[in-house]
């Protein structure tokens, strides 16, 4: 599975293909919650270990985009 963007799902956020699981959720579990990739596959049983690593690679390849998006004020 690859990383896809679909404006009709997850507000166009990058997701793992065919799962709807957002890359930023995988990255948050890894960076902020301290889960290792094996544990993330337990949190998201639809993902393989390679899916988790693919999502993390995508996140780090596009980290400036993710960080700038998270610093934007939330709309009410």
UniProtKB/TrEMBL annotation:
Alphabetical list of Gene3D superfamilies matching this protein: Winged helix-like DNA-binding domain superfamily/Winged helix DNA-binding domain
InterPro entries: DUF433, Homeodomain-like_sf, WH-like_DNA-bd_sf
Signal sequence interval, chain numbering: none
Pfam families, A to Z: DUF433 (PF04255)
SUPFAM superfamilies: Homeodomain-like
Top-level taxon in the UniProt lineage: Archaea
Protein name, UniProt field: Uncharacterized protein (DUF433 family)
Protein's organism: Halorubrum alkaliphilum
């Amino acid at each position: 599975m690859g990383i896809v963007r679909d404006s009709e799902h997850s507000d166009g956020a990058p997701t793992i293909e065919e799962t709807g699981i957002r890359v930023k959720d995988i990255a948050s579990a890894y960076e902020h919650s301290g889960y290792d990739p094996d544990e993330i596959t337990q949190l998201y049983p639809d993902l393989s270990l390679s899916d988790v690593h693919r999502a993390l690679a995508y996140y780090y390849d596009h980290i400036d985009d993710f960080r700038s998006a998270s610093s934007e004020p939330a709309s009410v």
